[in-house]
Specification:
alpha+beta
Length: 155
């Protein structure tokens, strides 16, 4: 009897954990957008001896949390020139501003320090433009993105 109760308790804890994990994953939607290839403009970039970054990509990852908040990070992917591997470097946003996309001014915006900000009430991720600041190698950069309805989430 004790073995069967122990088995039922273990099974119940596994099921509860799985439900919690699934609901946590369902609460986040992730969009990954490739910004551009960050080439430096060196004429000999095709050479492995070149200092150019022909194999460098820039991405922004926007995570929508419960359809109410967004978290933003910039990611750089650099391909090794000798081996077929890539190295990823993440740069969380240090400040974010979201503005209603149909208005091209700064009147209807929300700003926040850090990597998360609330989506304006009554709006979705497709209704806002996102400006964010991040630090990479000691320099500050800003980028702007908008996730249109035709962009599908990666998860």
């Amino acid at each position: 009897m004790q073995k069967s109760l122990l088995s039922i308790a273990a099974l119940t804890s596994v099921l509860v954990t799985q439900v919690l994990i699934n609901s946590a994953q369902a609460a986040e939607t992730i969009y990954k957008l490739r910004l551009r290839d960050a080439a430096t403009g060196n004429v000999q970039q095709g050479s492995v001896f070149s200092p150019g970054d022909l194999d460098r990509e820039e991405w922004v990852v926007v995570t929508v949390i419960d359809n109410r908040r967004i978290r933003v990070r910039h990611a750089t992917s650099v391909q090794n020139k000798f081996l077929p591997t890539r190295t990823w470097f993440d740069h969380p946003a240090t400040a974010i501003r979201v503005c209603v996309a149909e208005e091209f001014d700064n009147r209807n915006c929300q700003s926040a320090q850090g990597d998360t900000v609330d989506i304006p009430t009554g709006r979705s991720i497709h209704d806002v433009a996102i400006d964010f600041r991040y630090s990479e190698a000691g320099s500050l950069y800003t980028r702007a993105v908008q996730i249109t309805p035709d962009i599908r989430p990666s998860r």
